[in-house]
Amino acid sequence: MDTITAVILGIVEGLTEFIPVSSTGHMILTSKLLGYNDQDPVMKTFEVVIQLGAILAITLVYWRRILDLFGIKRMNGRETSLVPRKRLNLLHVIIGIAPALIVAFFARDFIKSLFSASTVIWALVAGGVFMIFAEWFNRSKARVTAETMDDLSYKQVFLIGIYQILSVLWPGFSRSGSTIAGGMLAGASYKASADFSFLMAIPIMVAASGYEMLDSYQNLTKDTLGLFAIGFIVAFVVAYVVVLAFMKLIQKIRLTHFAIYRFILAIVFWLFIMR
């Protein structure tokens, strides 16, 4: 790996991790086009490191809400207790991430056995269809009971957590795609679903990346550290910009647009990986 490769992969990770287009599919395709084996141990460690950069970006975007989850609010530079009110709380997040974490813990080896290029291609297509259906279902205002993230009920976040299992069991389905679409099917607005998907990504990605790092930390050597740091920083900066831009343009960029892009990516994937 060289500096240019580290930058390119960092950009791809930052661009795709939090929008519903499958970062897994993009990383496999990009690695293949660059002539790298994405299953190489060092490459897998690099992917974990740049994913941590993306996690740091989303944490920075939502740092106020994270403090809020723990009942803390910053006022005039000091931390004070919040008066209890109807808002998204820590229990909502725990309920939302629990199903996927439980499945991932007990089915880790089985999930890895499912990983293949053909699996990712079909996941891109199936995820796109799922997103189109969710947007069609959510088009009626009568079905929307949670306009903002703070309106989400425990039942709704649990359903979102169940939908997130799709991305755990089917590599390439997209974690953000399954949770945003799942939220819309559960009665949340597009924005509320996206907000909760991004916030929920922090603990679940920290858990997943941390677990993977335990298996591959030995690849962090003085020879790789510099390139890993470059990828980490690039992924952090790009992910930060992408999330902010996505939330500003959320009313203009629909799930159907991402679904169409996924179909195109599946075709490209087939042409360059499967043939």
TrEMBL record:
UniProt entry tagged with the keyword Transmembrane helix: yes
Q: Where in the cell is it found?
A: Cell membrane
Give EC number(s), comma-separated: 3.6.1.27
Q: Which GO terms describe its biological process?
A: cell wall organization; peptidoglycan biosynthetic process; regulation of cell shape; response to antibiotic
- InterPro entries membership: UppP
Transmembrane residues, as ranges?
A: 48-67, 88-107, 113-137, 157-173, 193-214, 226-247, 253-273
This entry carries the following GO cellular component terms, namely: plasma membrane
Indicate how the chain sits in the lipid bilayer. Answer: Multi-pass membrane protein
The Gene Ontology terms for molecular function here are: undecaprenyl-diphosphatase activity
Task: Report keywords, A-Z.
Answer: Antibiotic resistance, Cell membrane, Cell shape, Cell wall biogenesis/degradation, Hydrolase, Membrane, Peptidoglycan synthesis, Transmembrane, Transmembrane helix
- Quote the catalytic activity from the record: di-trans,octa-cis-undecaprenyl diphosphate + H2O = di-trans,octa-cis-undecaprenyl phosphate + phosphate + H(+)
Q: Which NCBIfam families match?
A: PRK00281.1-4 (NF001390), undec_PP_bacA (TIGR00753)
Q: Which family does it belong to?
A: Belongs to the UppP family.
Record's miscellaneous remark? Bacitracin is thought to be involved in the inhibition of peptidoglycan synthesis by sequestering undecaprenyl diphosphate, thereby reducing the pool of lipid carrier available.
Q: What does the UniProt record say this protein does?
A: Catalyzes the dephosphorylation of undecaprenyl diphosphate (UPP). Confers resistance to bacitracin.
Q: What name has this protein been given in UniProt? A: Undecaprenyl-diphosphatase
User: Per the UniProt entry, what species is this protein from, by scientific name?
Assistant: Paenibacillus azoreducens
State the encoding gene.
Answer: uppP2
